[in-house]
Amino acid sequence: MSPELARLGHVALETPNIDESAAFFRDAVGLEEVTRSDGTIYLRAVDEFDHHSMSLTEADSEGVDHIGWQTKTETGLSEFASQLEDQGIDITWIDAGEEAGQGKAIRFSTPTGNEFEFYHEMEKPDPPEERRSKLKNRTYSPTKTNPIAPSRIDHVQIWDPDANKFVEWLKETLGFRVHEYYDRRDGSRWGTWMSASETKIEAAIIDDEEQEKSPALHHVAYKVETANDLFDAKDAMNEEGYTTDGIGQHSISRGKFLYARDSATNHRIEFNSGSYLVFDPNWEPIAWQEGYLEDEDPPGSRQWVGQIESKERVFY
Amino acid sequence: MSPELARLGHVALETPNIDESAAFFRDAVGLEEVTRSDGTIYLRAVDEFDHHSMSLTEADSEGVDHIGWQTKTETGLSEFASQLEDQGIDITWIDAGEEAGQGKAIRFSTPTGNEFEFYHEMEKPDPPEERRSKLKNRTYSPTKTNPIAPSRIDHVQIWDPDANKFVEWLKETLGFRVHEYYDRRDGSRWGTWMSASETKIEAAIIDDEEQEKSPALHHVAYKVETANDLFDAKDAMNEEGYTTDGIGQHSISRGKFLYARDSATNHRIEFNSGSYLVFDPNWEPIAWQEGYLEDEDPPGSRQWVGQIESKERVFY
Amino acid sequence: MSPELARLGHVALETPNIDESAAFFRDAVGLEEVTRSDGTIYLRAVDEFDHHSMSLTEADSEGVDHIGWQTKTETGLSEFASQLEDQGIDITWIDAGEEAGQGKAIRFSTPTGNEFEFYHEMEKPDPPEERRSKLKNRTYSPTKTNPIAPSRIDHVQIWDPDANKFVEWLKETLGFRVHEYYDRRDGSRWGTWMSASETKIEAAIIDDEEQEKSPALHHVAYKVETANDLFDAKDAMNEEGYTTDGIGQHSISRGKFLYARDSATNHRIEFNSGSYLVFDPNWEPIAWQEGYLEDEDPPGSRQWVGQIESKERVFY
Amino acid sequence: MSPELARLGHVALETPNIDESAAFFRDAVGLEEVTRSDGTIYLRAVDEFDHHSMSLTEADSEGVDHIGWQTKTETGLSEFASQLEDQGIDITWIDAGEEAGQGKAIRFSTPTGNEFEFYHEMEKPDPPEERRSKLKNRTYSPTKTNPIAPSRIDHVQIWDPDANKFVEWLKETLGFRVHEYYDRRDGSRWGTWMSASETKIEAAIIDDEEQEKSPALHHVAYKVETANDLFDAKDAMNEEGYTTDGIGQHSISRGKFLYARDSATNHRIEFNSGSYLVFDPNWEPIAWQEGYLEDEDPPGSRQWVGQIESKERVFY
């Protein structure tokens, strides 16, 4: 029986200016700082029980240290390690606690160069008592957090010059399922929307036409409840002086979005609302073709197609 | 390896007046009539691809024929059948197509008397062309459907005089996970919120203190996007003259709700917004105790606790 | 030419525990403390430029010192004073600055005993620089205020044992217009919804059947944008431990509401969303009769009629 | 005493293809067709009691026949007529009923060439019984109308090559008040946001730099309740194949917007949410200068400034 992934867990980001990045993700976006150790700040969203869904580490330049995925079982770690080593992939074992709050983990580069971490155990620290919610099924009291704070991590978008190879590998080796894909007029694949958890889209893999070098993270998305929350987030970003892109709605995934960027690194966060869930084991991937909507539709419908204009991305 | 359930699929309701019940679920609530055959009307929500998530069948009196659950695999059907027969449960095999749009299925009574159906295959019929969405990842164009139409089935609430036995059986035999539970002051369990899909709460099992006879369906819940949608639904129910209960928000599940009832049967539908999802394989069930919120909080916070005043339920 | 009122300006409340009341209105509800002088705290909502829309003054017991109305012109003050004195009403002139931030004013008791203040000039102090919005057309940056903070004062509801006399006087002497009214089965009037500004309902005058003594303030309402904001406010009140009533929607005015109460005084604030505006000079008052909705409609529609269950009110 | 305007009443649009325009405004946008007479279709929004807030008349080409404003009194009509004639403006009297549902009216060209109509009386026809709301304070049952139907007319935006002269005339002759204005770096005025009703912005007057010919209508705005409603409207326009611009939020007026255009004429409708009201007789106009936000802010904040990219406008 194959090991299985449970879900997208966290992104570990690098920044040349950790204070400026923390000011963005914590003070402006409203992620909660859980702890700071060894030059790394660990953050989680206000509805998350797990120790962190993002970390910020000081480095020479901006970058992505790794993307963390939780396995369904603890034994899945060594099962995955063994499978990956069979493919010739080097595995680095990380001791429990080396990444704060986290159990034993493995790190490795995917065949196309994405830095991944697998882990199973994660501590669930209580918030400080004066900020804890009376409701037992959430973490922080919403009256004590940033008014625009998103609730939980949702997905990552990765741009990869060898996207097709990466997508096949995610399916074959890691068991990702495809929810939607988008083909160009010439038949080549532009993007694939996939899931480790099966239920929501957790990874959008985009063919990075302009980039020969290596894969990169385009954005990490967090969830908010309503479209008004997107406007409130945009408003807050404007008040605080951060760059935004959107508001709009993609045809693919039907996600309503606002993008905002850390001034220190260009790391991009998406505030995401709407979208849909897949509970159907017989889900047939949605097939989009370039021109399906654009040709017959007016330009105003572009946001339905969800081409993202802003191409900055941050490399591993 | 054990067979697994994928999700709550549908509820099959009985009504002494199918036209009046259809007027409620289809014309007022906004479920879509997919087909009518052999005296049964098959309905689905506007975001659903599968053939039906509800059926209405004429009968001598109101009732619940069965609650349908989809298995993860086709082979899961016979695996489950074999397991259940080992427990002494009688299995009835249903031919593909006997329930419109559905593949081969099994039906049986759970040890406490709930009527369940398991199936794997379900047709995904296109809507009529003039009502089909241009977006490939949804079914109906929202401009062509009822303004308050919910998007998809979410959960059922079952009242059972032998709730604890039922909950244990759901866990042990069917692999349900517990997300939350609520204990009375005397330590007895009042309710358990569980999931077949793991991600959302799909079944709330309530200890039916006042009812010795048999288990019953309290409500089936469908999803809407915002709290304003709950007000719009309440408004619509008032315009159409149907009984409602709510609007409010439960502490358990954090679901925002409106209940409305079919005048012919007292079958209750919940319009549900908010709530949370569980992607964590290490989720620790949320434990509530009677008095935790009520004692220290003002009466106005009752909606946070989510006691449902209206006790009508419909028996199998 | 008659003097004219411009709008409801503020309510001046009394409390035996100014710190506890301030904790409610400022820290929990999110009104902004503008200044504190001579034992009075002056508050405004986050979208208001004027100096205050509420004041809290320490007193032996809870009470309403006065309800403030702004005149359209400065000369309107002496014109109103002269008219009122012609009716035998005693006028007290208040010097500019006696009520902080306010110009010259008059105070008087209406014929049925409501304490009113008329003023024209009000300072528009800037918020502290670090909390000021970059947008010139609002006061505070929403990222710096309470997440649930309402935007502006909307209306007051007054219970008066001689409501009909009060309503007639508001129309004849002050030029209020009637937007809606509600008659009991016996033909007597239960409530009248009126406006000084013409545009929104600013005063609901309810016949106080149970109270022979004197008129009282049932609640003061402030505006929020969406129904989700009402849920967020309820959530915040629950977290902070304050009593609430609602959420619901009245048929009269179509206002969506949540009521919350200051623990020190029972002063009640309404969070209000929705409702409608009247720009039509030929508006015909909406006439409701007891039984119009209740008799033919199910109990669940009660919130449409807007009977307020909670009868606490605070006397002048 | 000067006559006074009450509010923006309606826009009378011309179209070379009345069926195509009606398909847009009535079937897609969801305005209600009240009556059709003499080649004109009269429409109102679902929350409006008055006979119409828009009319469509077949003509050789697209155009604006007139913009209608309601006077506060019937005598205001002849008082305005007399004032305007004193300025040398030609007045055309329109008999009651000539414009369906409307009382006696006057029409004239403003000094810069805008075609205006003043009227006081307007019929308030009941909707067809099967579509009438049970709530007496609204017109149509929301369950019977288009899911995205806006509630009421809000404002017009007029582009005028001689904007400053027009603005001064609106203030001096018609008593409009200025809520906000925007000056270019060279000190010239780009736009002025004004009101006849005082409460909301009813006319935005933009300096039409590129157009020497004559003034034109850029858009007419109707109100919706939430930001989700803007997304729903955009979604509907995409499904129906109409051109849109937005979604966004202007810094001026703080209005959240979506623009959509009639395919037959380029007449543009704005779906508007948010914004603010002015009840203050001492309101100080908000003064914006080019560069105040743009220079110091990132490009993403453009929507806060509200430059409208799409310059199509329709001439009188």
UniProtKB/TrEMBL annotation, chains A, B, C, D:
Biased composition (Basic and acidic residues): 122-132
InterPro entries, sorted: Glyas_Bleomycin-R_OHBP_Dase (IPR029068), Glyas_Fos-R_dOase_dom (IPR004360), GlyoxalaseI/FosfomycinResist (IPR050383), VOC_core (IPR037523), XylE-like_N (IPR054560)
Keywords from the named record: Aromatic hydrocarbons catabolism, Dioxygenase, Metal-binding, Oxidoreductase, Repeat
KW Transcription regulation (keyword) present: no
Record carries keyword Metal-binding: yes
Biased composition (Polar residues): 138-148
Region of interest (Disordered), ranges: 122-149
Positions of the VOC domain: 7-121, 152-274
The organism's place on the tree of life at top rank: Archaea
Listed GO MF terms: dioxygenase activity; metal ion binding
Name of one Pfam family that matches: Diox-like_N
Complex and partners: Homotetramer.
Family (UniProt): Belongs to the extradiol ring-cleavage dioxygenase family.
Protein name: Catechol 2,3-dioxygenase
Organism listed in the record: Halorubrum vacuolatum
Lineage: Archaea, Methanobacteriati, Methanobacteriota, Stenosarchaea group, Halobacteria
